[in-house]
Write a structure and sequence with these properties.
The complex is a heterodimer of chains A (about 600) and B (about 375).
Chain A: H1 33-41, E1 43-46, H2 60-77, E2 83-91, E3 94-101, H3 105-124, H4 126-146, H5 158-162, H6 169-191, H7 195-212, H8 218-223, H9 234-249, H10 252-255, H11 261-270, H12 272-288, H13 309-323, H14 332-349, H15 353-401, H16 416-432, H17 438-458, E4 464-466, H18 475-481, H19 485-495, E5 505-507, E6 509-512, E7 515-522, E8 537-540, H20 548-551, E9 556-559, H21 567-575, E10 579-581, H22 586-589, E11 595-599, E12 604-608
Parallel strand pairs in A: 7-8, 8-9, 9-10
Antiparallel strand pairs in A: 1-3, 1-4, 2-3, 5-12, 6-10, 7-11, 11-12
Chain B: E1 11-13, H1 22-37, E2 45-48, H2 50-60, H3 63-71, H4 78-94, H5 99-115, E3 123-129, E4 145-149, H6 152-164, H7 169-177, E5 187-193, E6 197-204, E7 215-222, H8 226-229, E8 236-241, E9 247-251, E10 257-262, E11 267-272, H9 275-278, H10 285-302, E12 306-313, E13 322-329, H11 332-335, H12 348-358
Antiparallel strand pairs in B: 1-2, 2-5, 3-4, 3-5, 6-7, 6-12, 7-8, 8-9, 10-11, 12-13
Helix pairs in contact in B: 4-6, 4-7, 5-6
Classes of the chains: A alpha+beta (about 600), B alpha+beta (about 375).
Chain lengths: ~600, ~375
């Protein structure tokens, strides 16, 4: 397996100096020999799961947030014995990550009692602590929603004097920005409070089953934890409810009259029952439409509340389905019955009483942690992030007003510390009554950065760089990112093929069992899923909960990135349709209209040429 | 059940055999009877019982002579062993069966042919030892099997050959080593309709490589199962999920030869697989699934992993064409008392910690 040396990766011509767009510790460097050596012997894989596109300077906030949070929990709070944190780098706008092992066996031994005590406490008190978590995260979201981003008035309100406030809007703006950033970082602290332990419970249940049954397909194990109601499905369920309500109220014609929200809303307002439906929509929107059309990681991922034509598409699909007499509910009863049958049969095949006890324990723990592993996504990546992006846009509006940026969306090309710097420029100039310096500094820099981002996008990021290890051991890496020895070998193989048009077979993870043939529809974003035709096979970089309506139309799903716990795999298992995930390159190789054969049992996608 | 003047039958139908019939019909036939009664499709047949065997040996009156031949034998001396074996086998095969036994067997054979709608049904004649097929005492292959036998006389002849197979050199030596009392020796002979197999092979209801009980592993080749059993070809290999019956893995091998019947003289023959079929999957997906389902039922019935021989009959349509020829308990993994995987305490935390430290990879 050959992957490029990180220090040999060349700058794309015209992007020289791009490093200043990101925090300096993200650079692969040669100026520190110790660091250089470490970087070369380490294995870095491209985190396409979170960043299917090059990362914008501002969006680096979430990367830093989880760089800190995941690593601190692993290493400083719970002390996972054999793994420290996960290290990060950026190269040509692409984020590469690497789990850092503890190599000294004695040190691992010293970490054990800490881990047992600390992680043990969480496992034993999981439900109680998770309830506390929910309070914390909801309070954080509330604080965010209530956070005001003040504009800078020509003259401060008289109340500043009469209430003897003693502080100006200039200071409040700086403070609000700091608060905003801190809330974001705090939210991510909570994000990882349970996640590592949750994944560990899950991963080692898989591991136990694989030891018991070396040939067991992973999705059979995950199937044993399927059919648990998690709020990840809630938003989609709301769409289904709204679709039914529309039919019940007889307003479905108005809803399906356009793909855009504005004319639909106008049509509904003209109908007496339309108001009632709109009221139901309003109720469903908060918080259930705070669902991002992407993973929530990028500022580009707008949420349903930002653009109601996205959920409208889902509602329309469901209305059509109901009218055709189709059952739009997830076949939960069937899924659960099959889950129970499979669980019981495998359990009966375990030879020893003691192993059966371990099985019961591990399955129980996996089921306990499962809701968190899913639900945190809604709270953090979807709800919090969606509101957060909006607040940053409010900050951007002030910067635009003061001439530091030309467009609201220019803000994403600035690092968050540059924004702070810019805001200081704005408030001091505002206070003083002079012109800020930034108007001449940032716009040309932003223009240049836009060009760099363009070039980054055209770059074909290697799936991995550095030195591939003998074995991949870090459980999160395997389950979440789908990185294993065999997947790397497959990626490296595809990477080295000169003519991608000659590829007739792609390997990935068997995400959800079954075999299906059909036409491909390549969708890069949630917006594109409206192109989907009934019975097609969705081919996408990755999927997220807001893609849910797509699953009502398609017969199978293929993704570039993701392991068996990725969204696409979970949803397909719930819908009982095949999925092959983590193929590495499907969206680059497969074109819309190609005839595909998806074998979700073996993880093979065959392309008819 | 016909039993002449004794209480125990001399011959009986396979469907009249049960698990507890082993002393009477041997492991193989009782197992076949057991399967038929469990609803598993097995080619029809009958058995000469151990009582029939005793009657034959008593009538032949050669017991004492055999004892004396064996008494002074040094089983380490291969030449002497083989010579003694030859002598004893010759004696047995030369003995006629009593008229009573001959008539009885001929009548069963005629009825079997009628059941198969064939003038003289081709049958497999195989020994069914009382000690064979038991867990921990597998000396499979130590008795003979004769395939594609037609006509009552031929059946009778091969029954005698099966009986004489008790005295192969290997069997004599084995019993001597095990200090097995030959006076207790008994054998039954099964006569079973030949499956006219298009494809045949073996099936384990666990993974013979790693003992994984959640899979069924099938080896198959064209023709009769011998090419697979004997290891003369690398068969196609299929791994099926026992729980869901999904085909997890398939390895299609190049199969050079297969066993079929020589239609002229009704004997088994080895022929080359035509080049265009050598690399073609010898068992269809639907058949794999149906076969694995049967394997699962067999295991469920016996309550333990099984080693099964099967055939797909070419004369019958899909749905009724898969036959189980033999099923015996799997011995290798069953004896290897599985150490528990955990060995780390049974709590989830114990396991998670131990596994983290072990750092085993998932693949």
């Amino acid at each position: 397996m050959k992957f490029p040396n990180p220090h040999d990766v060349k700058d794309i011509p015209g992007t020289e100096g791009w490093e200043r767009m990101y925090p300096y510790q993200y650079q692969f460097t040669t100026d520190d020999p110790e660091r250089k050596e470490y970087e070369e012997k380490t294995f870095w894989f491209y985190d396409g799961l979170h960043y299917p596109e090059p990362i914008y300077p501002f969006d680096t906030i979430w990367d830093e947030a989880w760089y800190l949070a995941l690593s601190q929990y692993n290493n400083r709070i719970f002390q996972v014995p054999p793994v420290r944190g996960v290290d990060h780098r950026i190269i040509n706008g692409h984020v590469y990550i690497s789990p850092v092992p503890v190599e000294d066996p004695e040190e691992i031994g010293r970490r054990v009692p800490n881990f047992t005590e600390r992680a043990g406490y969480y496992y034993q008190n999981w439900d109680e602590l998770e309830a506390k978590w929910k309070v914390k995260i909801e309070a954080t979201i509330k604080e965010l929603e209530e956070l005001q981003i003040p504009g800078l008035p020509e003259l401060e309100d008289i109340s500043v004097v009469t209430d003897a406030v003693g502080e100006s809007k200039g200071f409040h703006l700086i403070k609000a920005y700091d608060d905003l950033i801190n809330l974001g970082i705090k939210c991510w602290q909570y994000h990882f409070e349970f996640l590592n332990l949750g994944y560990a419970a899950y991963v080692f249940f898989l591991d136990f089953m694989q030891k018991q049954f070396p040939s067991i397909p992973l999705q059979r194990v995950t199937q044993m934890i399927s059919g648990i109601d998690v709020i990840m499905f809630r938003s989609d369920d709301e769409l289904k409810k709204l679709a039914k309500k529309a039919i019940d109220l007889g307003v479905e014609q108005a809803i399906t009259c356009s793909q855009e929200w504005a004319p639909v809303e106008a049509a509904l307002n003209k109908l007496p029952k339309g108001q009632e439906w709109l009221a139901a929509l309003e109720e469903a929107r908060y918080p259930w439409f705070y669902i991002s059309s992407g993973t929530g990681w990028s500022h580009n991922d707008c949420c349903w509340n930002d653009d109601l034509s996205i959920p409208l598409m889902g509602i329309t699909t469901y209305i059509k389905k109901i009218k055709e007499g189709a059952d739009i509910e997830r076949p939960l009863t069937k899924v659960r019955a099959e889950r129970d049958r499979i669980t019981e049969e495998y359990r009966a095949l375990i030879e020893s009483e003691e192993d059966r006890k371990t099985f019961d324990e591990l399955l129980g723990t996996a089921k306990t942690v499962f809701p968190y592993v899913e639900n945190h996504l809604f709270y953090v990546e979807h709800w919090f992030h969606s509101v957060f992006w909006g607040k940053i846009r409010e900050v951007a509006a002030i910067m635009k007003e003061h001439g530091l940026i030309k467009e609201i969306d220019d803000i994403w090309l600035l690092r968050r510390d540059e924004i702070k710097q810019g805001l200081w420029d704005v408030v001091t100039a505002w206070a003083t009554g002079v012109k800020p310096r930034g108007g001449a500094v940032w716009p040309p820099e932003i223009e240049w950065r836009k060009g760099v981002m363009e070039k980054f996008r055209a770059w074909d990021a290697p799936a991995a760089i550095g030195t591939a290890p003998e074995v991949i051991q870090e459980p999160f890496t395997i389950v979440l990112w789908g990185v294993t020895n065999s997947s790397l070998a497959d990626w490296s193989e595809v990477q080295n093929i000169d003519d991608p048009d000659s590829i007739t077979e792609l390997k990935g993870f068997a995400g959800s069992p079954g075999i299906v043939e059909g036409r491909a529809r390549v969708c890069h974003s949630a917006k594109e899923i409206r192109e989907l035709q009934e019975g097609e096979i969705l081919v996408s970089p990755t999927t997220s909960p807001s893609w849910a309506p797509a699953f009502a139309k398609i017969n199978a799903c293929v993704t570039d990135v993701g392991g068996i716990m990725s969204h696409a795999a979970i949803v397909c298992r719930e819908y009982g349709m095949p999925a092959v995930v983590g193929t590495g390159h499907a969206t680059k190789i497969i074109k819309t209209g190609m005839l595909l054969r998806i074998d979700g049992t073996t993880g093979i996608v065959s392309i008819e040429r | 059940m016909k039993g002449a003047n004794t209480e125990l039958p001399l011959v009986c139908w396979l469907e009249d055999c049960r698990k507890d019939s082993t002393p009477l019909v041997g492991g193989k036939c009782s197992s076949l009877g057991e399967m038929i009664n469990a609803g598993i499709r097995v080619p029809p047949g009958f058995a000469l019982t151990t009582e029939g065997y005793r009657r034959f040996m008593a009538g032949a009156g050669i017991g004492r002579e055999i004892q004396s031949l064996l008494a002074g034998l040094d089983t380490q001396d291969m030449d002497a062993l083989e010579k003694t074996s030859e002598t004893i086998r010759g004696m047995i095969e030369a003995q006629p069966l009593s008229t009573e036994l001959e008539d009885l067997i001929a009548e069963y054979y005629r009825k079997l042919s009628l059941r198969c709608c064939l003038p003289a049904a081709p049958v497999a004649v195989r020994s069914s030892a009382t000690a064979e097929d038991l867990v921990g005492a597998s000396f499979a292959g130590q008795q003979d099997t004769y395939l594609w036998i037609r006509g009552a006389d031929e059946v009778l002849h091969h029954i005698r050959r099966c009986i004489s197979s008790l005295y192969t050199g290997r069997a004599i030596a084995y019993r001597a080593n095990q200090k097995f009392d030959d006076a207790l020796l008994a054998i039954s002979v099964g006569v079973q309709k030949m499956a006219n197999s298009f494809t045949a092979g073996v099936m384990f209801t666990l993974h013979p490589g790693n003992g994984d009980r959640s899979v069924i592993v099938i080896d198959s080749n064209y023709g009769f199962g011998e090419s697979v059993v004997s290891g003369e070809v690398t068969p196609d290999n299929f791994i099926v999920n026992k729980v869901t019956l999904d085909i997890l893995e398939r390895t299609i091998s190049q199969k050079d030869i297969y066993y079929t019947v020589d239609t002229k003289n009704q004997t088994n023959q080895v022929i080359d697989v035509p080049p265009e079929r050598q690399k073609v999957q010898s068992l269809m997906d639907d058949e794999i699934t149906a076969l694995a389902w049967m394997g699962k039922q067999i295991e469920k019935h016996y309550g333990r992993p099984m080693d099964i021989e099967w055939a797909v009959d070419k004369d019958l349509p899909f749905g009724g064409n898969i036959f189980i020829l033999q099923a015996r308990p799997e011995t290798v993994w069953s004896e290897k008392r599985k150490t528990n995987t955990a060995g780390k305490g049974t709590s989830a935390m114990d396991y998670i910690l131990a596994s983290m430290l072990e750092g085993k990879k998932l693949s």
